[in-house]
């Protein structure tokens, strides 16, 4: 039975990870009714919750839930001690506290953008949260923590995304980040980032050198003509010298 429950929880968690962008550490929003049930059934929430969800968790509550346990008196004193150990998240009812059920519903708003798991035994809270897509519900039954199956609102939302009627939360986040990078949807003066100042660099030492004066180029054809004349004149002189040498012995013989 335990293995079957663990497999079902793993399947449900992967559903919320893939379709609604849930990531570790999972944020578990807990109220006093869940702590009272855990105390009654001798369940250690801090130890058993990470094991059941197979990942790191952050246990948290609201000031309204703590205030409600204080007003209920000594009967829920043990639940209040357990709830005080968890992180207290800010809610909009700091000055005027409301009931825990109303506070939890307001924390999730319409889209559960903060990706909260909600752990409660309150039937009115679970009924209201099942109307919001992408809200995993945890409760205690038969001395064990149970992760409820995805609600019909979550299934309808996923089906609408697959048909192209809606955009998934992960796609919405990627669109937001792209808009912020490109500065789309912001005023010219509110664009993200500042203009980079160019660093003052030293001048190039080669550019500081004085330019050499270019001489008037001589055409290459003239050089070749002069060299050819010099070579020819030397060749003629050699021929003349050779001719004088041959004529002198001929005259002596005569």
UniProtKB/TrEMBL annotation:
GO cellular component, one term: small-subunit processome
Basic and acidic residues composition bias: residue spans: 177-191
Main location: nucleus
Region (Disordered): 177-254
InterPro entries associated with the record: Fcf1/UTP23 (IPR006984), PIN-like_dom_sf (IPR029060), UTP23_sensor (IPR057776)
Subcellular location: Nucleus, Nucleolus
Pfam entry (one): UTP23_sensor
Gene3D superfamilies the UniProt entry points to: 5'-nuclease
Top-level taxon in the UniProt lineage: Eukaryota
PANTHER family xrefs: RRNA-PROCESSING PROTEIN UTP23 HOMOLOG (PTHR12416)
Name by which UniProt lists this protein: rRNA-processing protein UTP23 homolog
Species lineage: Eukaryota, Metazoa, Chordata, Craniata, Vertebrata
